[in-house]
Design a protein that fits this description.
The protein is α/β, with parallel strands linked by helices and 356 residues long. The protein contains ten helices and ten strands.
Length: 356
């Protein structure tokens, strides 16, 4: 019989090495044995059906995906991030994501688990408004998006530019007016601009106005009707909040997994995608977040934080290593996909920081 290590088994099954050790200690992996102080597992061993089985969902037709392209989106890192999901033992029944952004991790968890409570928030009001509109008024939203898509597809390049600028101005007008009666239209324009602007980037100027130019897409999918309806259904169980990340404190307890994906610390002086809203997120804010993370950890919550790795450009930069010196820090490979400069794209390291 051929044996492999707990780490190899963890990579094979897509769970944490610690979880593999727990399953071994509970005699739930047949023929697993302890060699010294390490577990080894038969290479042909089957992953046990565990306590989450009654909540685990694998229906392909029910799967949802992010409805926006978002700078810093975690789609490419899901294989790494899912190894931290602590839902196996049945104790962690809640999930919170206070910097939800495009929601790649949120939707991955919604696809796989039927948790008791889920909380998302973001300081970007237009983003949260879009989540809320999909949850509460998806049919009205789809109707507007289908109309926008039909009109946009029928235009030539010059006409598209004028149409795009018209809708961008309307979006900014609604954004500034803060008219609750126009929330569905605002959400539709948010999706339209995201699908048709340059690189799908969300950026605002100092006045808080969206200022990204038009992109060059021949036939962009502006209305993904099937996905929007599926997302709406999944969001029915999700609490959606437009607020600073600290508001999540009331939701968090020892049964909660919290994923913090804040605006990344720029790894160069010119590389900054923190302008998702009118608020800045500099080193001082990173330190405040670390203090808050400590408080949530004291509550007994399982915590995962992601950020850029300063060592990409400066091997002497220990900013996050010192800030989270009591946590487990893992450096993982990532690809930067959104940048106004093609030289700013490519393979880099990112940080995954956990308290377990």
């Amino acid at each position: 019989m051929t044996y492999i290590s707990a780490r190899e088994t963890a990579d094979k099954w897509g769970i944490s090495q610690r979880r593999v050790a727990v399953l071994c200690s509970e005699n739930r992996i047949e023929n697993a044995i302890m060699v010294g102080n390490m577990w080894v597992i038969p290479s042909n061993a089957k992953k046990p059906i565990d306590a989450r089985s009654t909540r685990y969902m694998e229906k392909e037709d029910d799967k949802v995906k992010p409805f926006l392209k978002w700078a810093g989106g975690k789609g490419q890192l899901l294989k790494e991030i899912e190894r931290y999901y602590p839902f196996d033992n049945g104790k962690i029944t809640k999930y919170a994501e206070p910097f939800v952004g495009g929601g790649a991790v949120l939707f991955d968890i919604l696809n796989k688990y039927d948790l008791e409570e889920i909380y998302i928030s973001d300081i970007n009001r237009e983003l949260i408004n879009t989540y809320s509109a999909i949850k509460d008024s998806v049919n009205d939203l789809i109707q507007i998006l289908e109309d926008l898509q039909k009109k946009y597809w029928e235009l030539d390049n010059n006409e598209r530019k004028d149409f795009y600028l018209e809708k961008r101005n309307k979006f900014n007008e609604l954004k500034v007016s803060d008219n609750a009666n126009k929330n569905i239209e605002l959400a539709a324009l948010m999706i339209f601009l995201n699908r048709t602007c340059f690189n799908g980037l969300y950026r605002v100027n100092r006045k808080g106005l969206f200022n990204v130019p038009i992109g060059s897409y021949k036939k962009p999918l502006i209305c993904d009707k099937k996905n929007l309806k599926a997302v709406s259904e999944k969001l029915q169980k999700v609490k959606i909040v437009s607020a600073d990340y600290k508001t999540v404190s009331e939701f968090v307890d020892e049964n909660t997994f919290v994923y913090f994906d804040p605006p990344y610390r720029p790894i160069t002086e010119t590389a900054s995608f923190t302008s998702y809203s009118e608020n800045v997120f500099l080193d001082e804010q990173q330190k405040e977040l670390a203090e808050f993370v400590n408080k949530m950890s004291v509550k007994g919550a399982k915590i995962l934080v992601s950020n850029s790795d300063p060592k990409n450009t400066n091997q002497e930069d220990e900013f996050f290593d010192k800030l989270y010196n009591d946590y487990v820090i893992k450096r993982v490979d990532a690809t930067r996909n959104i940048s106004c400069n093609s030289q700013g794209r490519g393979n880099i390291k990112e940080l995954l920081i956990s308290n377990f």
